[in-house]
Fold each of these.
Amino acid sequence: MEILRGFKDTLPTDMEKWHRLEKAAKEILESFGFKEIRTPILEKTSLFARGVGEATDIVEKEMYTFFDKSNESVTMRPEGTAGVVRSYIDNHLENLPYKKFYYIGPMFRYERPQKGRLRQFNQIGVEVFGIENPSIDAELVYMDKMMLEKLGIEDLRIEINNIGCRKCRPEYMNELKSYFKKHEESLCEDCRRRLDKNPLRILDCKNKECKAVANKAPKITQFACTDCKDHYNKVKERLQSLDIKFTENPHLVRGLDYYTKFVFEIITDKLGAQGTVSAGGRYDGLVEELGGKDTPGIGFASGCERLVELLKTKEEKLFDYYIANLNSDEYALDIAKQLIKTTKKRVYVEYEKRSLKSMMKKAGKINVSYVVIIGENEKNNNKVILKNMDNSTQNEYDLKTFLDNEVKRWL
Ligand SMILES: [Zn+2]
Ligand SMILES: [Zn+2]
């Protein structure tokens, strides 16, 4: 049997990096007062159609959508924000004394599989509700950067943009539309299709000719209302006072319809062309769009696969003890039980019938700190032989002394 195209197993050999990523992320996010939320993978299709936007690539062609057995159209979440917003409204989370949430989990998009792009991928994301103050925008950028730095990810660049709000964007969109209409023949097929519904997306098309046209397109700065400009300028001030370096990129628009005012991306040049490791922005209209009260919102998300790819490999012991069990199963299991209970360390018991030589070879291969050798002789005399794999010394102990020593070793 083969795995589905665009899907990937996360094997035990990769797991150390995943655990390190999740641990570091949770530590940083919780230290900023964020609380975890878990929403379902499957939601009503209409949630994403309304929440992500009908005219986005995601909704138009990338969703895993099907009818369930009661003929309801359901979709496997292609991103995390819509579900958290739905949950916020459904569960009246506005009544909680805190409104900063984070999630970690799998998302699904039916994209053309290519290097570094999977159809099931994981995201770490945060959402904040009810805070209009531009300080929160700056806090999120700061926290995001701190999280990436804690993971040891280097050469980070931050790009920001103001993409207007519900008041001023329509006028800008019209202006953009008529500009791109004039240059329609130079645009790629995708962009021609986007022209009417989502001209903003043309600004970040990777196609060379589209880029040339986009470079001369009208800029939002000419159309942004005082409210947007004011908000954006304050975010910039806060970022500066936090000593965060950023560049302004007028073509940064993000792929989703719901963003307003402030958007940002954190990019590393370590991954080549596709270097965005984290991205987000404000979505002040989304809660209302999905049936809640008019509530400001802001968030960001990071692709975990990309972060894991950037993590440095750590030389790590797989286990603390390997019990080289030479035909003494019960004694071996008893020692393992006592070792785990008293030291709380990782103990691997060998039950395969092997020679001592082949067990020692295996112990070297799996990178273990100590080997406990027990054979007929040790079992009959209540003894063990302990080999320290780091300095190759080997000693015999009676069981009680051995256990006492091992407890002390890890204190
Ligand atoms: Zn505005
Ligand atoms: Zn294009």
Amino acid sequence: MKRLHTFLLLNISLFLPVSAPLIAQEAEGAKKSRPNILFIAIDDQNDWIGYLGGHPMVKTPNIDRLAGRGTAFTNAHCQSPLCNSSRTSLMTGLRPSSTGIYGLAPWFRNLPEFKNLVTLPQHLKANGYRTYSTGKIYHGRYGRKGAEFDVLGPGSSVGARPKKKLVTTPFGNHPLVDWGEFPHKDEDKGDWKVASWAVKQLNEKPREPFFLSVGFFLPHVPCYATKKWFDLYPDDDSVLPKIRRDDRKDTPRFSWYMHWYLPEVRLKFLEESNQWRNLVRSYLASTSFVDSQVGRVLDALKRNGFDKNTIVVLWSDHGWHIGEKLITGKNTLWDDGTRVPLVFAGPGIKGGQVCSKPAELLDIYPTLSDLCGFKQREHLEGHSLLPQLRDAAAARKWPAITTHNHDNHGVRSEGWRYIRYADGSEELYDMKKDPNEWNNLAANPSLAGVIATHRGFLPTENRKPAPGSRSRILTWENGKATWQGKEIDPAEPIPGQ
Ligand SMILES: [Ca+2]
Ligand SMILES: [Ca+2]
């Protein structure tokens, strides 16, 4: 806090009549006091993280250590449960409902209105930071050319692959849809290389202040990890998440449109071919491997003496179902699809505290800006978490909102999850009594007030899918749902009912 106060005082002093050399000197002093930022992203990482308790067996000692020395959020949620749209929201500071970016495309720079929008790294650059990026920060290859960052390391990649797929699936057999024991070494993995590049930058003592963004690809499929990471988890059904076979009977038809073939083809395959446990263990093993790579970078930060003056923020872009609510994968508005790790540690942040107030990934941009003492950009739709970073119990009036495709929203407060789909159908869960979201209470008349309160937070602007939205786009218009342009027959019986 002392640094922040010093910086603010110096800024005030710029308005006093002082000589030019003194101003230059003070500006230099202010520059030196700015904290560095280490920005760590994990792809498709749900709440199976030690400090979050999403899986009772998961081992993530390095992330938990970071959580222990900072403020760890237990109720943080993505703004979109899909890579491109989630990352676009975080980096631009705008909701998906304000950009119309709900899918894997477009790249927001291709839309004229966002061509010159100042993203988080550009905001820091404008304030004197040198910006580095490696691995997956924006989706795919987006952001790897142009003016997003000053210095680029290796991009996101799976790294070496097994000679042939480890699991043959009946649904297209996409090369990414694979998992199992990696036959090579940890050092051959893409995420090892990403961490190594980040370590190298730190060892070379970068000019300060720096913004070092490091994006890990796992546990996104293919979930390959070496044997030592599998050995952390028992090879029996005790690893499987708890599910209720009748769970979807009380969810509206619109929720089925997100994964409208139930039994979902992937989960059905996993169970019938005895692969469910293998996928769960592969995901857990991949999470522990990524945790070890986070540890390598954090160790390098400390070894090079940067830990005292570096803010570390760690996040994931969205959750992942592995059987919960009878589906696998992302693209949902339940906690399994939206809840993510979010940890801040470093100067200006109280250590050793856990915050259960709702937080949004959208808040990262204004929070970092606040921690560095910069003027906020006017376009930002998130809210600084600075009050919670000083006192985890500080009141917060906003819930966390997740949007999936046009006009479907989840609103997560401390006690409740409310979902409203584009056709007006609703879900409500009492998250304190029913953390698995098993019992939809939306039809309970005594909870009409709770629903009204949450409904009041729904975004008022709902932009239509942006031009170039080509993948995983669900729309609802004139009483008809369409999936990627093809009408869904509302009379179609729900398979499995
Ligand atoms: Ca992702
Ligand atoms: Ca249910």
